[in-house]
Design a protein that fits this description.
The protein has 233 residues and is an alpha+beta fold. The chain has ten helices and six strands; from the N terminus they run αβββααβαβααβαααα. It has two domains: 128 residues, endopeptidase fold (from Nostoc punctiforme); 39 residues. It has a six-stranded antiparallel beta sheet. β2 and β3 form a beta hairpin. Pathway: Cofactor metabolism; retinol metabolism.
């Protein structure tokens, strides 16, 4: 039971990290470069109204945006490229996994406007699905759209405090919250409370020492992370 529990705990934590990072799986055969966009007109936008909150459920996460009308969606995406260039044509290209991951690491993002096809990336779209959670807090559709438009541009990024869900809930409900963040924090608490995570951290640390050699960059994280999990449990 112990042998199975350790990798399960590590896998669960990785899953929740990916959930917040919003990494999009690329089709087979791609190398992390620019993915092929969905065909124009793939989605019927006639049922969308300006100011609608759009959700695209994925296997490990949900991505959010605000519909602006005319097949345009404002959404927050981690992106490193704006730090290196002001070329709007270059920045406006579909964000690749490499740009996205580097944006997460450097805590850089942009609130950008894309077509529905590029925003949804082939996934199914839910419309105003979160309204039931906020009831009387829903702002007017035009107010939500205007809020989104005012925020378009570069912004800081945080997995826990400023992700795409915070952006849309601020625009449509006036309060920046993230239920995905709450789930992630609960998962972290669960793993910290489970003392088997201490063993998992030791095994990962020893594996890194074996692979990379005995050095401060491998031994110190192993010691401190294990000690932290032990004391916090």
């Amino acid at each position: 039971a112990m042998k199975n529990a350790v990798p399960q705990a590590a896998s669960l934590l990785l899953e929740k990290l990916l959930l917040l990072v919003h990494v999009r799986a690329l089709p087979a055969g791609t190398d992390g470069g620019e993915p092929p966009p969905a065909a124009p007109g793939y989605y019927d936008t006639s049922c969308f109204q300006r100011g609608d909150l759009l959700e695209v459920p994925r296997t490990l996460f949900v991505h959010f945006g605000i519909y602006l009308g005319e097949n345009r969606v404002a959404h927050l995406m981690p992106d490193i490229l704006p730090a290196f260039t002001d070329d709007r044509q270059q920045i406006q290209r579909v964000v690749t996994n490499k740009r996205l991951i580097l944006g997460v690491i450097t805590k850089m993002a942009s609130i950008r406007v894309d077509t529905v096809e590029d925003f949804a990336y082939g996934g199914s779209i839910l419309v105003n699905h979160m309204d039931r959670r906020f009831k009387d807090q829903v702002l007017g559709s035009e107010e939500a759209a205007r809020r989104a438009e005012k925020l378009v541009g570069a912004t800081a990024y945080s997995l826990l405090w400023n992700n795409c869900e915070h952006f849309v809930t601020y625009c449509r409900y006036g309060a920046a919250v993230s239920f995905q963040t709450d789930k992630f924090c609960e998962t972290v608490k669960m793993i910290i409370r489970d003392q088997r995570s201490v063993l998992a951290s030791v095994l990962v640390g020893l594996a890194s020492i074996v692979c990379l050699g005995l050095a401060p960059s491998t031994t110190l994280p192993t010691i401190f992370i294990t000690f932290f999990l032990w004391m916090a449990g």
